[in-house]
Amino acid sequence: MPRLRLICLTLFAACFMLNAHAEEKRYISDELNAYVHSGPGNQYRIVGTVNAGEEVTLLSVNDGTNYGQVRDAKGRTVWLPLDQLSKVPSLRTRVPELELQVKNLTDKLANIDDSWNQRTAEMQRKVSSSDSVIDSLKEENQKLKDQLVNAQKTVNAVNTQLDDKKRGIIMQWFLYGGGVAGGGLLLGLLLPHLIPRRKKDRWMN
């Protein structure tokens, strides 16, 4: 009876170990093609090879012989040493992915370069446009300064003309006033001589 229990426990442990390794992805070593056997050991018949780097599915493990049962890409269920399996993807499967990553990075770098060149060109256009606007504003400012100078000259000339006219008007009024005063004085001096004196009344004689 104890022996039967021991056998059952052993079978249970074996089933547990088999299930623990069921359906796990593994990769054949990159160094060389691996020979596969019909059973869990090199004493079993060699039934073929699997290519180096090929992806296989680990179905079970024989801890006694350190062999694993795998299913390859052709659907065959065979055995081979566990030391010829790896959890890390092989170079054979990684190279296309790496090439794709390199291509994507190269495309991104090219796009970044194109984008940078485009931004640089836009900045140069903006700077050139700004320089043009600045030059135009400077030219317009200079024109306004010239117009202001000319306007000031015109105002000064007009003020000079007004001053001359004011002086002319003052002189005219001064001469007119002098003429009137002189005429009045002359008239006052001549008028008594022009008007005959009245004869004295006879009775006064």
Q: How is this fold's topology laid out?
A:
Layout: H1 2-20, E1 24-28, E2 34-37, E3 46-50, E4 55-62, E5 67-71, E6 77-81, E7 85-86, H2 91-194
Antiparallel strand pairs: 1-4, 1-7, 2-3, 4-5, 5-6
Short overview:
This protein has about 200 residues and is of the alpha+beta class.
Protein architecture, described:
This protein is of the alpha+beta class and 205 residues long. It has a domain of 88 residues: SH3 Domains (SH3 type barrels, Roll). The chain has two helices and seven strands. The strands form two sheets. The chain has a five-stranded antiparallel β-sheet with strand order 6-5-4-1-7. The longest helix is centred in the last third of the chain and has 104 residues. The protein is rod-shaped and about 185 Å long. About 5% of the residues have low confidence. Keywords: Coiled coil, Membrane, Signal, Transmembrane, Transmembrane helix. It is found in: Membrane.
Observed structural traits:
205 residues, alpha+beta, SH3 type barrels, 60% helix, rod-shaped, transmembrane, SH3 domain protein, transmembrane helix, coiled coil, SH3-like_bac-type
